[in-house]
Amino acid sequence: MKTLVLASHNQGKLKELQAMLGAHFKVRSVSEFSQQEPEETGLSFIENAILKARHAAKVSGFPALADDSGLAVDYLQGAPGIRSARYSGQNNDAANNQQLLTALAGVPDEQRGAQFVCALALVQHADDPLPIVCEGFWQGRILHAPQGEHGFGYDPLFFVAEQNCSSAELDASTKNKLSHRAQAMHKLRQRLGL
Ligand SMILES: O=c1nc[nH]c2c1ncn2[C@H]1C[C@H](O)[C@@H](COP(=O)(O)OP(=O)(O)OP(=O)(O)O)O1
Ligand SMILES: [Mg+2]
Questions:
Q1: How remote is the CA of residue 15 from the centroid of ligand 1, in Å?
Q2: ipTM topping 0.85
Q3: Is 40 annotated as contributing to ligand binding?
């Protein structure tokens, strides 16, 4: 089985990506090779995914897959977007969720639309001139208070109308069928013929 390094230090993501890829690859985490995280200097999810994938391929010597993802809120013109992980100034889920609730205080439900965005980038080696990039999107709306214990990040605030619950109330296998990450991964598997 081919080795694939996941270019993420986020345990929530790693768990989901492992569940989606474990049947096809021997999956390893970049943290086995380096604790140093590249600076996410890109202006888009795609650029950041590519730079994380290149960094992981460089430190590991293996093909690498990166996920850059986040939440784009309509009322906030797409914020926190690529800054989702440090929206509150700290890389902390509870603080980020609180920051989002504050930004949307008093905003009614019909103006609380949002989407989760995921860009996946796969490189065969650090200088690969042809990264494979796939995106996925998941529509929802931002709740007024956190709900649910599963998942990570903004899941407790992300209401999924089709399921009538937050994404933190979905079990892992349901989230992994519906999410932005699942949709990007579906495209990636098609591109790879898996
Ligand atoms: O399914 C999700 N459910 C809830 N929240 C999510 C999800 N997917 C991304 N998110 C949030 C978490 C974090 O605030 C940001 C990702 O930021 P992002 O830079 O891509 O990841 P990160 O810094 O946590 O880990 P790493 O860069 O090592 O992969 O979006
Ligand atoms: Mg990051």
A1: 12
A2: yes
A3: no
CB 150 within 8 A of CB 141: no
Residues lining ligand 1, Cβ inside 6 A: 8-10, 13, 40, 52, 67-71, 84-85, 96, 116, 151-155, 179, 181
Domains and CATH numbers, the chain: 3-192 (3.90.950.10)
Q: What is the pLDDT of residues 153-174, one digit of tens each?
A: 999 999 999 999 999 999 999 9
| Residue that the structure tokens 């932005």 belong to | 180
Q: Is 4 exposed, middle or buried (0-12, 13-18, 19+ CB in 10 A)?
A: buried
pTM over 0.80: yes
Q: Using CA atoms, how far apart are residues 54 and 124, in angstroms rounded to an integer?
A: 9
List the structure tokens of 137. Answer: 């999107």
Question: Of 98, 100, 168, 182, which Cα lies nearest the Cα of 138?
Answer: 182
**C-alpha to C-alpha distance for 142 and 104, rounded to whole angstroms:** 9
Q: How many CA atoms lie within 13 A of 158 on its CB side?
A: 26
The rounded distance, in Å, linking the Cα atoms of 62 and 97 is 35
Exposure string for 5-41, b = 16+ CB within 10 A, e = fewer = bbbbbbeebbebbebbbeeebebbbbbebeeeebebe
